[in-house]
Amino acid sequence: DADVTQTPRNRITKTGKRIMLECSQTKGHDRMYWYRQDPGLGLRLIYYSFDVKDINKGEISDGYSVSRQAQAKFSLSLESAIPNQTALYFCATSGRLAQTNTGELFFGEGSRLTVL
Amino acid sequence: AQSVTQLGSHVSVSEGALVLLRCNYSSSVPPYLFWYVQYPNQGLQLLLKYTTGATLVKGINGFEAEFKKSETSFHLTKPSAHMSDAAEYFCAVSRAGAGSYQLTFGKGTKLSVIP
Q1: A53-88 burial string, b = 16+ CB within 10 Å, else e?
Q2: B40 to chain A: nearest residue by CA?
Q3: Tens digit of pLDDT per residue, chain A (116 long)?
Q4: In terms of Cα–Cα distance, which of B112, B103, B12, B68 is closest to A45?
Q5: Which of A67, B58, B94, B113 has the fewest CB atoms within 10 Å, i.e. the most exposed one?
Q6: Residues B34, A104: C-beta atoms closer than 8 Å
Q7: DSSP class of B22
Q8: Closest C-alpha to B27, from B76, B96, B91, B75
Q9: Cross-chain Cβ contact B101/A97 below 8 Å
């Protein structure tokens, strides 16, 4: 089984709908991240969380919200989806500074979202 | 602030030829540097990383990269390309010594291998 699991893997929705992407991890990491990938733009950070009580905006947080339900679970919501949120979304985790950690991220397999 | 520039969004090489993917970074503190690979319809996986110590870093699948501080570069190389190397490659930098780590990614280079 994958260490970082994302659901759904693929989703097609309509403009204005609420969408939630879920991420769970079995790596025991404290830190979780949501990235968005667009062709030619690389990966851009949406939100990140260093523990259950700590949520931080990334560079492109507008139109998104997150919830850290537990150490192992981090969900991304689009309250009212719009077509330019069509993208591939990745969840990632990393360990805490006190652990063996150089900032390396461990990625899920991605959730492809299409907003019509 | 930190940033990453990958030169060339697409690179094509013949099978058996040298692979060279270029990455330059900017960072106000000593960086940690990474190369990730993304195969079609998959997530990103770590190829190799530089933290401290030896500047020539070896990774998986025969890839290696050299950290050159004077050139602020971390180019990825492989002596002989294989068809299975066709993928997108991302260079990334994180801030060393910070209380937290955030990776900044380049825009990616798509590698095509021609038979």
Answers
A1: eebeebebbeebebebeeebebbbebeebeeebebb
A2: A109
A3: 669 999 999 999 999 999 999 999 999 888 899 999 998 888 999 999 988 999 999 989 999 999 999 999 999 999 999 999 999 999 999 876 545 566 788 999 999 999 99
A4: B103
A5: B58
A6: yes
A7: E
A8: B96
A9: yes
